[in-house]
Amino acid sequence: MTQPSDKALVPFVSVDNMMRLIHHVGIEPMLRDLAAYIEEDFRRWPEFDKTARVASHSEVGVIELMPASDGTSYGFKYVNGHPKNTSEGLQTVTAFGLLADMYTGYPVLLTEMTLLTALRTAAMSALAAKHLAPAQARVMAMIGNGAQAEFQCLAFRALCGIEEVRLYDIDPAATAKCVRNLARSGLRVVPCDSPEQATLGAQIITTCTADKQYATILTDNMVGAGVHINAIGGDCPGKTELAPAILHRADIFVEYSEQTRVEGEIQQLPSDHPVTELWQVIAGQATGRREAVQITLFDSVGFAIEDFSALRYIRDRIKGTDLFEPLDMLADPDDPRDLFGMVQRAAG
Amino acid sequence: MTQPSDKALVPFVSVDNMMRLIHHVGIEPMLRDLAAYIEEDFRRWPEFDKTARVASHSEVGVIELMPASDGTSYGFKYVNGHPKNTSEGLQTVTAFGLLADMYTGYPVLLTEMTLLTALRTAAMSALAAKHLAPAQARVMAMIGNGAQAEFQCLAFRALCGIEEVRLYDIDPAATAKCVRNLARSGLRVVPCDSPEQATLGAQIITTCTADKQYATILTDNMVGAGVHINAIGGDCPGKTELAPAILHRADIFVEYSEQTRVEGEIQQLPSDHPVTELWQVIAGQATGRREAVQITLFDSVGFAIEDFSALRYIRDRIKGTDLFEPLDMLADPDDPRDLFGMVQRAAG
Questions:
Q1: For A200, which DSSP code?
Q2: Active-site residue, B235 included
Q3: Which of A9, A48, A210, B145 could form a disulfide with B174 if both were Cys (CB 3.0 to 4.6 A apart)?
Q4: Is A336 touching B (CB cutoff 8 A)?
Q5: A229 versus B52: which is more confidently predicted?
Q6: The organism sits in which domain of life (chains A, B) (predicted)?
Q7: Mutate to test the interface with A, among B6, B22, B63, B332 (most CBs of A within 10 A)
Q8: Of the listed A33, A41, A70, A235, which one is catalytic?
Q9: pLDDT of amino acid A332
Q10: What's the rounded Cα separation, in Å, for the pair A240 and A217?
Q11: What integer pLDDT is reported at residue A224 of this predicted model?
């Protein structure tokens, strides 16, 4: 075994350690913490080096790299999207991520991000709703009860004070799973037989379904005045969830408009349709909800800065814990020019 | 501890295991194997999804992601370039890489690539020389005796039959290190006091210096008729090693012209100066060396397909060995939709 320097060992958070961290911190506090880190980064949005994700498409899915940098740290996420995976017993989305120091170029954190993405997506949704939904919202409709559903429900409870979630999925087994998992959450959980029933009395409607096609999960008549829509399932070209009529009645908020116009619900609209970037609301440069009857829509596709915030949080939060392993990932000879000598000396 | 499925555990090759693999295979056989994998992929070049690297620059360096895919597998490399690192006791270049299955989007290999990049770069150089250098070349000048130098010398011995290397570096300590490391290589090793002395009688000249600026490592008068130049240090915008006059006397071969025009020696030339992509020579679609007096130049900046080939090789080569560890990197619940339930059940 070689004796690498501290910098050569990259802290690695496995899936197992991520689950321990969630229980160590508590899931609702962790969702609040993640929202706080995202909020902090959205406030300083113009400081970031923003790049559209780099995608590699095949007929059955996509693999993407999502980099972002604030000039001091650099982060990226590897994430796949394969809707057909579920039917083969695999995850639709898996992910891992890395944080590095811009000054040395050395990685400082490698972590699983399948779980972390579920958490940061839920934290992002609830953070947006904190700024856009009616302040007295207590009931949320959750349409699509897959892998993301419970995280969404808990984030809206933790950040927005939601007390009742009304669940609907085309597959009743998904709803049953969600009801079971939320049994001890403190939420009032109401399984519903139709999307119409789910939206009844809801001030917030979250749509999160996984079909890779234009679908109409939400029709115009289901959306009353004053509602906030949190649309997270329309997140790649050709995949949308909302009837276009809803988009015309709503004030639309997005993460990074350049990306959302290609991937989000607004791909159904002309490319000059007015939208507001959420960071402007958070930084006090634009208005969120103006009035009670207004329909607000957060057209969320996920952006690299949210992953950057999540990576920053994990790096900070694991300090002083045993919830990571040092990974021998970087060759680091005593004399940096003597890479070959290091290999030679390892022969013994 | 959870019970992840096979697919959730990603084989990881640490620096330590990469060194063991090198000694297990033998460094010269491994350089030949890598060249064979690169040659195979260069032959089917048009099949690849080619993307220019995604770079994030700071004042002191750069971090890059280099993805490539052949439609079946997807690979990418994370690599930094920080010339000032050496003076701080760190590597100028560190790297790691990942190979994934395009059909599922699941990673199938994570590996250190600092050592692997040194090996694949040397294999690439020697492979190019096999097609471009005079067949009877036995003497190589090696200008720049840093971390890459010994790998280059051994690759040219293994693939091109080089018997003598003539070493020069502005820092004599670097040359001394290189002489020491090559003592038992079977090469005749001649330390030189000047680049002129190094190039004396050499049929191949390799330049590999690390200054991040326009420099003239090789002047016109040092390059005689019939020489093959392997220029690997001019590899980013603003960083070149050759006097422009040499470029006008040489037939120029590159990896991916779109990238080389920005990063290579030819950034000193008009953007329409004729160059040949090496894959065309390897695939039999273009001529390499035509005659004895011709000066050939391989203007190498490194391309993602070479890393893809190296990743493929490691994946194939570690099968049946114990030279990797399974990494718990992908969350993989029994029911793919029950990510939250997996977290809940881990609480116990």
A1: T
A2: yes
A3: B145
A4: yes
A5: A229
A6: Bacteria
A7: B63
A8: A235
A9: 83
A10: 9
A11: 93
Contact residues, B window 81-110, toward A, CB-based 8 Å cutoff: 81-82, 85-86, 88-92, 94, 96, 98, 100, 102-107
| CATH number of the domain located at residue range(s) A124-302 in this protein | 3.40.50.720
Please check whether residue A69 touches B, CB under 8 A: yes
* Beta-bridge partner residues of B62: B57, B81
Of B207 and A332, the structure prediction assigns the larger pLDDT to: B207
CB within 8 Å: B147 and A337: yes
Q: At what angle do helices A27-43 and A114-132 cross, to 10 degrees?
A: 70
A10-65 pLDDT, tens digit per residue, is 999 999 999 999 999 999 999 999 999 999 999 999 999 987 678 899 999 999 99
Residue A287 sits at the chain B interface (C-beta within 8 Å): no
What is the domain partition of chain B in residue ranges? 6-115+305-345, 122-302
Pick the CATH number of B122-302 from 3.30.499.10, 3.40.50.720, 3.40.630.30, 3.30.9.10: 3.40.50.720
Q: CB within 8 A of A293, min separation 6: which ones?
A: A225, A226
- Here the ipTM equals 0.91
Domain B6-115+305-345 indexed as CATH 3.30.1780.10: yes
pLDDT digits (tens, 9 = 90+) for B181-229: 999 999 999 999 999 999 999 999 999 987 656 678 888 999 999 999 9
Q: Does B62 touch chain A (CB under 8 A)?
A: yes
